[in-house]
Specification:
This protein is an all-alpha fold. 36% of the residues lie in helices and 0% in strands.
């Protein structure tokens, strides 16, 4: 998934190691919900009580050229 990202101030990268089957499930569930993995995970964190705003959920990928 080598899409270009829009740089946004006040964001930091985190990295976790998960079993391959968990990553595949996240990818599939995000796809089924028409979301990026980032948005899918942020929504899950929001449901657990993490303060995630609608702005935080915005797609950060650059629009595709036609």
């Amino acid at each position: 998934m080598g899409s270009s990202l829009v740089t946004v101030a006040n964001e930091e990268a985190i990295q976790i190691i998960v079993p391959s089957k968990v990553k595949r499930q996240i990818q599939l569930m995000a796809l089924q919900n028409n979301q990026t993995m980032r948005t899918f995970i942020l929504n899950a964190l929001k449901k657990q009580g993490v303060n995630v705003s609608e702005d935080d959920l915005a797609d950060r990928r650059k629009p595709k050229r036609k």
